[in-house]
Amino acid sequence: MERAGADWLHVDVMDGHFVPNLTVGPLVVEAIRPCTQLPLDCHLMVARPEDWIEGFAKAGASVITVHAEATAHLDRLLNRIRESGCKAGVSINPGTSLAAIEEVLELVDLVLVMSVNPGFGGQKFIEGALSKVERLAELRDSRVGPGFLIEVDGGVTAENIGRLSRAGADVFVAGNAVFGPKDRKKALAALRAALR
After folding, report:
1. SS3 103
2. Out of 12, 15, 41, 109, which one is annotated catalytic?
3. Residues 169-192: tens digit of each pLDDT
4. Domain spans, the chain
5. Which CATH class is domain 9-195?
6. Potential cystine with 15: which of 25, 46, 163, 187 (Cβ 3.0-4.6 Å)?
7. Measured between alpha carbons, how far is residue 179 from residues 53, 122, 151 in Å?
């Protein structure tokens, strides 16, 4: 992916509880870290994210993103991520209002808007995510001080990436759009071209 031109590597972490699937843990991130200088964006789709912060930080995560829906103490958890030396991200599912994260926006480096229900690849983009990105960009622009990146994950394609960018998104997680075609470099180039 680095040779193909990716800017970041997004690592989906699933525990079989918060979402049905089970995927990688800190040991896989630790194995990836020496292979690339790209930022490792670790997206924790887990029921108890507080149990995993130190493990992923030590493994080499650059960004650790937790779901607002997965913890009762979001403020405390975001501070722990920053104290671990990583950038802090918060994610919200399609059915979660931005109100769930408004009070912690000053603590985050990134807000991840899920544009599919988390847990499975290959899902269709949920159009409501576009207006959520627009509202989040307005919130970001109205605040004083450092802003945060807006990331979109789920169903991102060459057909919708331009609209997402115009709405205010900065970071795009593309799974099937990149890993579906055999030529990943060409797939990434098509996404970049669609941004212009």
Report:
1. helix
2. 12
3. 999 999 999 999 999 999 999 999
4. 9-195
5. alpha beta
6. 46
7. 28, 11, 19
Q: Of these residues, 41, 153, 170, 183, which one is catalytic? A: 153
**Alpha carbon distance, N-terminus to C-terminus of the chain:** 21
Tokens in use for 15? 């525990």
The neighbouring-strand residues paired with 14 are: 45
Helix boundaries (H) for the chain: 26-32, 53-59, 74-83, 128-142, 161-167, 176-179, 184-195
Q: What is the pTM of this model?
A: 0.95
Assess whether 170 carries a catalytic annotation.
Answer: no
Question: How is residue 173 written in tokens?
Answer: 């997680």
Q: Please name the amino acid found at residue 32.
A: I
**To which residue do tokens 């970041």 refer?**
8
Neighbouring residues of 59: CB distance < 8 A, sequence distance ≥ 6: 26, 27, 29, 30, 33
* 12 is annotated as an active-site residue: yes
